[in-house]
Amino acid sequence: MPASYAYLGPEGTFTEVALRTLPEAATRELIPYVSVQSALDAVRAGEAEAAFVPIENSVEGGITTTLDELVAGAPLMIYREVLLSITFALLVRPGTKLSDIKTVSAHPAAQSQVRNWLRSHLPDADWESAASNADAARLVQEGRYDAAFAGEFAAARYGLEALETGIHDFPETAQTRFVLVGRPARPAAPSGADKTSVVLWQRDDHPGGLRDLLGEFATRGINLMLLQSRPTGAGIGNYCFCVDAEGHISDRRMAEALMGLKRICLQVRFLGSYPRAESGPEDVRPPLLGTSDEEFVAAADWVARCQDGRF
Does residue 27 sit in helix, strand or coil? Predict the structure, then answer.
């Protein structure tokens, strides 16, 4: 496997900035790809060791392109996550004034994060989506659009200037979550502050179906951090569910929850157990009564003794 990481490019994306916060990125060749799909396909094809892509932001929720790519195709697994605070700059060709701007561009996920600013400052500008914020900056450089919402750090790379900085409708809380995705392998040992990601398909559509799925987590005291439905492509009303849950697959309560889901679901896709970003064991809530590993082991031992007539 080549010692390279694919990422959503071109150079100058928030994805690249987040990727460079990983210590191992300094020892890998970092290769930009034009889309999330192509970056993940590079891993599937063996052209890259892993891919680094956005998966969620605090304003719009899950990045559907990434979720759909992880749901479909050859299985991949998440190994790491990174949280990055996001603030946009309005990048323009030198000499451009705000009154000159008729078209603006950025990644679709950026639109919900600057919508109010755009309405207040450029109400008549036409929005055009780009493959990434950095790609929008490149298109401004080429003269296709008048301005791009991107990181201020991208200005010098594309010969642009930041006409406005610090742009965000939610400046104190805006974050994007990125994940490092590779081919399936044994998950890393638990860190004490972990997250497990799965995709769930129901066997059929029936009243209480989603409750049945969530009950496998709830009865074992497992907190959910993300729940998002995605269409399966099999017609209106057919959905699968992307779930992030607190804990590691090696935890007894998580392992039992996954076994329960495997019994009742049409399909379960395991996307990995990995350390939670910016969290440590001290940030993890204690397990509910009856859901610690020790209590699961004690209960299993009791059942075994009953089966042997040793109760």
Answer: helix
